[in-house]
Amino acid sequence: MHVEGLLKQHVIDPEICIRCNTCEETCPIDAVTHDDNNYVVNAEICNYCMDCISPCPTGAIDNWRVVSKAYSLEEQFSWSDLPAQEEIASGEAGGAIEALEDDVGALLEEARKGLGGKPVAPASASKPTVNLYNRGKPAKATITGNFRLTHAEADSDVRHIILDFGDQPFPVLEGQSIGIIPPGLNAEGKPHAARLYSIASARDGEKPNANNLSLTVKREDKGVCSNYLCDLPRGAKVEITGPFGATFLIPNDPASNILMICTGTGSAPFRGFTERRRRAMPEAAGHLLLFFGARRPEELPYFGPLQKVPEKLLTRHFCYSRVPGEPRTYVQDRIRSEGARLSALLNNSHTHIYICGLKGMESGVDEAFADVCRHASLDWATLKATMRESGRYHVETY
Ligand SMILES: Cc1cc2nc3c(=O)[nH]c(=O)nc-3n(C[C@H](O)[C@H](O)[C@H](O)COP(=O)(O)OP(=O)(O)OC[C@H]3O[C@@H](n4cnc5c(N)ncnc54)[C@H](O)[C@@H]3O)c2cc1C
Ligand code: SF4
Ligand code: SF4
């Protein structure tokens, strides 16, 4: 996994390890060794096969550090606890390692262009795992569910797809993405590039403690990967890379207000965020607000389930642009009409903004926030920069 001089090193947490020798017995290529003090992984030998992860009774073996120079055996033997992740500047990502694979890094960089600066994770977010699986060593997931979210008569076919990882570790946080490798070759006879999809479930799975996750996938006309995914039957196997993304993450602070603005499949991470809040902190003081744009209610993924989330937890603003006989409403219109409430939230240092979905929505949303701020004698450009720098403003559009 060497990319641009960086290595994701497999390390063992000496504070948790009970020195049971299971990993040393399990490792097929003798990458694990020990002295009187510690069990350690030899970075020159380990090939990331993951065979040792599930047999470890404590989880001590499931630790990773991205390093510019691998920790030597001697250094690891001397540890009494794990060293913190060192700060590594990685281009635009500015220290937060979103992805080590060049093509995935480029996709994420493009998706976050609208931020206008370095992406920064919320200060209270959990530490994500990134790049556990790559093209050379993908995870293999099984499709355990694939059903249509949009109405049978809607123009768009958006599907809820559930992927089960069996006994492979695939730790994720809400807001991260995974790579899907469509089988077959492209027009140049090369393997298809991986496509990114946002995780639509909470970190602990579709149902608590299931080793699975869900995606919200829109079938694109003639699209290679979306058609492949949308047509997969239950039981089919899929090759997965990732997880990716280290900044578009939910804050863990229960006081945080989370403003979520999306169109179409941009709702995927917000389904994960809402589910996380509902499960982990249902009594949180902070509020969730969703602005969700679609042509008609029939085109809106998760419409039914979203209606069931209590208002106390989530305030919903559905904005329809093509309902016969009704004025066209886009998310930016609703942001403007909710200006008084929003400007109070924007003045609150616990407020986070997340924008996800079609690239085309960005400028309208930006102008709407500028208008809301102007009416409240706030300067949106300054506020936006401050929010981004403190990990409270996030954009992911594609
Ligand atoms: C960070 C991130 C998160 C994302 N999250 C999601 C998500 O949660 N859900 C989701 O659905 N998508 C998501 N995407 C988009 C996703 O990665 C893919 O880009 C999308 O599914 C289209 O991929 P595809 O392989 O189907 O289309 P591609 O084959 O890549 O084609 C791209 C476009 O070109 C057109 N095209 C292709 N071949 C032809 C042809 N022969 N003639 C005419 N037109 C053609 C297709 O209509 C398509 O619109 C995300 C992207 C990023 C960057
Ligand atoms: S990941 Fe594989 S090679 Fe590395 S220590 Fe574990 S079992 Fe050994
Ligand atoms: S299997 Fe886990 S607990 Fe046992 S020695 Fe290895 S790392 Fe430590």
Which terms summarize this structure?
398 residues; alpha/beta; 6-stranded antiparallel beta sheet; 5-stranded parallel beta sheet; binds flavin-adenine dinucleotide; binds iron/sulfur cluster
- Which ligands appear in the coordinates? flavin-adenine dinucleotide, iron/sulfur cluster
Q: How many helices?
A: 10
Low-confidence stretches: 88-95
Determine the N-to-C terminus distance: 27 Å
Radius of gyration: 22 Å
Beta-strand content: 15-25%
* Widest β-sheet, arrangement of strands: 8-7-10-5-6-9
Global morphology: globular
Average predicted confidence as pLDDT:
91
Q: What's the total count of β strands?
A: 15
String of helices and strands: EHEEEHHEEEEEHEEHEHEHHEHHE
The computed structural class is alpha/beta
Main sheet specs: 6 strands, antiparallel
Helix content: 10-25%
What does this structure look like?
Helix content is 21%, strand content 23%. With 398 residues, the protein is of the alpha/beta class. Helix 7 (331-337) packs parallel to helix 9 (362-375) and helix 8 packs across helix 9. The chain is globular. The chain starts with 6 loop residues before the first strand and ends with a strand. Flavin-adenine dinucleotide binds next to helix 3, strand 8, strand 9 and helix 4.
